[in-house]
Amino acid sequence: MNRRQVMQRAMALGFVSGLEGCNYDDPNHPDLADKFLHAMSAWNDRVQAALFDPHTLAPTFRPSQITMPPRFNAFYDISQAPVVDETSYRLELGGQIADKTPWSLAQLNALPQEGQITRLICVEGWRVIGQWAGVPLGQFLRRVGADITCRYVSFQCADGYYSSIDMASALHPQTLLALQFLGQPLTPAFGAPVRLRIPTKLGFKNPKSIMQLAVTNIYPGGYWEDQGYNWFSGS
Amino acid sequence: MRDKRIRVIHPWILRLTHWLNAFAIVMMIGSGWQIYNASPLFGFSFPITITIGQWLGAAIAWHLAMMWLLVGNGLVYFIWTGASGHWRKLVPPGPKAIWRDMKLALSFRLAHETGVYNAVQRLLYTGVLLAGVVVVLSGLAIWKPVQLWPLCDLWGGYFAARYVHFFAMTAIALFLAVHLALVAMVPKVLPPMITGGKL
């Protein structure tokens, strides 16, 4: 067997495992390759948590650099984006939070706001620059008496999407409960009435149309995370 | 400066890191092509039959798992190459020697001298090692553009780093094609890369 054949077999091995062993698409029936990838992904979560510096800020951009028109992205078509009634909307709080009184949109808008022009990087590789404004999540969590020694903050969305982030990233100064996009209140396609904006993580870690926020020590997973995307997915 | 104790053409550590690297690089390129397909930089995609991972999530999982093998194995190789003096065999000679050996190689008259790298080999090996360093550093910049922002800035930002990463991969893939073609032309060089061979 010459080297070319060796390489061809190596390629074929990768190819076959790509076909049969590396689907990574059935979390309930993991095969050996899935278990290996899962263990490595958990290891990468730990490496990223260690690499995360709470004082390192994501780069900010000039208004002229904002991507226009903005790019819609979800696991469904733009016409399917959920429309939440803003007058009856209440942000539900759950888990290790002292004051779980739900928040209306007007109450959230009355809190001190911060804005940012940051880059959103999609797990697919593309990136856009946008302008968001809203309530810093860390300030909000402290205001409602969340136990910030907990490990996770989880989000449930109007469209069935769900995700979760680590507490250190939740307390990062650029992590917002965003209420505005491009200087206007959020529209349904871009996450109305409230979305998470977290420029230190990939785009899919920015859930839209958030209905419930919870603080917990029990791993909450996420829509894509449960299918195989790396959970931490920090930038 | 040849170490008189070395009686094999390829020491075991070189053979081990070579084959681990071969496996890692095939997995990295195959999964990288699938990741590329999710958001192509150019007007083409890679056929799914030659990619690794059935969908983006699996491809990324493979890519971010195998990067540890690629980098860990690469570090062992670089440390050994530096410490053992092996690097002296790899330093490319002057342009004259390269031009001479290149002409000989292209006319298929460049003789293979056991245990000695000719000028073309030295140039190719040094070049692919450099491409390996670039592919890893640009990959880290894409993976962590915020936490490793100085590395991202080095390549001119996240957007540019994706192109750098792609072209470094292309350089490695082209090297691989030439490398395999040369082994096919001079098959006697293959067994020593497995057994070590004798000088």
Structure, explained:
- The complex is a heterodimer of chains A (235) and B (199).
- Helix content of chain A is 24%, strand content 23%.
- With 235 residues, chain A is α+β, with helices and mostly antiparallel strands.
- Chain A folds into 2 domains: 1-30; 49-227, Sulfite Oxidase, Chain A, domain 2, CATH 3.90.420.
- Chain A has a 5-stranded mixed beta sheet. In chain A, strands 3, 4, 7, 8 and 9 form a 5-stranded antiparallel beta sheet that branches.
- Chain B is mainly α.
- Chain B has one domain (12-195): Transmembrane di-heme cytochromes, Chain C (Fumarate Reductase Cytochrome B subunit).
- Chain B contains 7 helices and no strands.
- In chain B, α1 (12-38) packs antiparallel against α2.
- Chain B starts with 11 loop residues before the first helix and ends with a helix.
- Chain A binds chain B through residues 2-4, 6-7, 10-11, 14-15, 17-19, 22-25, 36-37, 40-41, 43-44, 48, 51-53, 56-59, 119, 121-127, 199-200, 224, 227-230, 234-235, and chain B through 22-23, 26-27, 30, 35-36, 38-39, 49-58, 60-62, 64-65, 68, 142, 144-149, 158-159, 162, 176, 180, 183-184, 187, 190, 193.
Element layout with pairings:
The complex is a heterodimer of chains A (235) and B (199).
Chain A: H1 3-21, H2 32-51, E1 90-95, E2 103-104, H3 105-110, E3 114-121, E4 127-136, H4 137-143, E5 152-157, E6 162-166, H5 167-170, E7 176-181, E8 184-185, E9 195-197, E10 210-216
Parallel strand pairs in A: 1-10
Antiparallel strand pairs in A: 1-2, 3-4, 4-7, 5-6, 5-10, 7-8, 7-9
Chain B: H1 12-38, H2 56-84, H3 95-106, H4 119-143, H5 149-154, H6 158-185, H7 190-195
Please provide a brief summary of the model.
The complex is a heterodimer of chains A (235) and B (199). With 235 residues, chain A is an alpha+beta fold. Chain A has helices at residues 3-21, 32-51, 105-110, 137-143, 167-170, and strands spanning 90-95, 103-104, 114-121, 127-136, 152-157, 162-166, 176-181, 184-185, 195-197, 210-216.
